[in-house]
Amino acid sequence: MVIEGLDGAGKRTLADALTGALNDAGASVTSIAFPRYGESVHADLVKEALHRGHGDLADSVYGMAMLYALDRRGAADEIRARLGDHDVVLLDRYVASNAAYGAARLHQGADGEFVRWLKELEIDRFGLPVPVAHLLLRVTADVAADRAQRRAETDAARARDSFETDDALQKRCSVVYDELAATGWLAPWHVLDGVAGVDTPALATSLLRT
């Protein structure tokens, strides 16, 4: 099960609350957050590039997408093992993040060439596990940017990167996310109101019934 949304949407907060609610409902839950900074060399290269390391690497949409994909490929066996040991494996970002941000950077939609290429790479070629559901935590780009800025001011380890500070990119990414959700890309999507808040106990009950 995957939580998706813009930078600053509140994905980590939702993941923590949903984990508690699922545990309360009797389910065993484990979680992984992507990119796996500090655990994966590919994720660390992503972080460095987003903060203007490695020359013009961050300017390459396909190059960055490949690093994100390789980070997940390195975690594929761990994901499968956890699926065998737990009722729910909760992923904070997954393949859809790569699809949404890459397509947005190229000014493409969810039906464009980039999203098709990415599915062929991550799902068909790398064989990553297909999620059972996506939870899209939807907020406007302005709300997400404000939250990300306040987060950066209180946590030096979460300074905003070049994607997070690009307001136009965030707005285009939001549109692509909506398109992915509307088409049920890879798995069913549940769109959640990230501004009004999420009733996580009710959400947990609903998800366990599906």
TrEMBL record:
Q: Which GO terms describe its biological process?
A: dTDP biosynthetic process; dTTP biosynthetic process; dUDP biosynthetic process
The entry's keywords: ATP-binding, Kinase, Nucleotide-binding, Transferase
* Domain spans labelled Thymidylate kinase-like: 3-181
Source organism superkingdom: Bacteria
Q: Which InterPro entries match?
A: P-loop_NTPase, Thymidylate_kin-like_dom
Query: Quick check: keyword Nucleotidyltransferase in the entry?
Result: no
Q: Name one GO cellular component term.
A: cytosol
GO MF entries: ATP binding; dTMP kinase activity
Q: Which family does it belong to?
A: Belongs to the thymidylate kinase family.
Q: What is this protein called?
A: Thymidylate kinase
The organism named in the record is: Amycolatopsis keratiniphila
